[in-house]
Amino acid sequence: MRIAVMGAGGIGCNFGARLAAAGNDVSFIARGANLEGLRANGLSVTSEFVGDLHLDRVQATDDPRGVGPVDVVLFCTKLYGLEAAAEACEPLLGPATAVVSLLNGIDSEDRLIPILGRRHVVGGIAYVTAHLQAPGRVRHVSGPQRIAVGELDGHMSPRLESFREACELAGIDCLFTDDIRRLLWGKFVLLAGIGGVAVLARAPVGVLREDAELRALTDVSMREIVAVGEAEGIDMAGAFDAGTAFIANSAADLEPSLLVDLKAGRPMEIEWLSGEILRLGRHHGVPTPVHHTIWAALKPYAGGSG
After folding, report:
1. 59-61 and 43-46 as β-strands: parallel, antiparallel, unpaired?
2. Which overall architecture, per CATH, does domain 182-301 show?
3. 243: which of 51, 57, 144, 186 lies 20 to 30 Å off by Cα?
4. Mean pLDDT score, 229-256
5. What does CATH list as the number for 2-178?
6. How far apart are CA 226 and CA 218, in angstroms?
7. What's the pLDDT score for residue 306?
């Protein structure tokens, strides 16, 4: 299978490396120091859960025109770079190319459709946490090597069946769902509900678990998302309990991606996380005071300054 990874960060490199190691034709669309590192030293993924992986050589470029049409684009950019990256995907698209969105937001697919066309956009969720530690060097931090995918109209397509088979051969658990939006909202409870409080407190998940006030604040943060999701017509049953289980079972030093970005002085996705919950809450008349606070407190750092 021909696969392009648009956005060769932690998630994209993690899955791309495993798909390449399994014999797929994988191209990484990267830039800057990471592109140079991939070209010079290949790609390494360290994982205490499923074992390390090193590829001496990978196909890496900053020009999708040199790659041409592929079967699948793993779309793994940050939310603030979505539009520019989507426009750059045009040379990668063939008649049946699936652009699998593995982004953090709940509106990513809706933002991609006007640029790529509805027939190309596929909803997706990455359940693994992986961070780019240095150019061409990725660390699998937590979570299973798992992806959930779903066509936006809920049907099981031949292209997703082929992609699922490729993932399984690469050691990636690929789940098909006929209700991708429900799963996206379920993960959003973790990303924005837990991650928002963690970055506000500058604390890993273990501190949120052990500190009574922060634990209570995290519960309210998650419940606000559940309430907004229900107002949007999403089945949120079990989402809060899944968030509670995540907090209970995560490593004490686990840092959500928002906190990792803040500490590194990189731009943050807060506008599309707590900011989106604030906007939707206002639209539906659902109070979201915790996410209003998170968004307002972090907005000065959204552009990246630490």
Report:
1. unpaired
2. Orthogonal Bundle (1.10)
3. 51
4. 96
5. 3.40.50.720
6. 12
7. 59
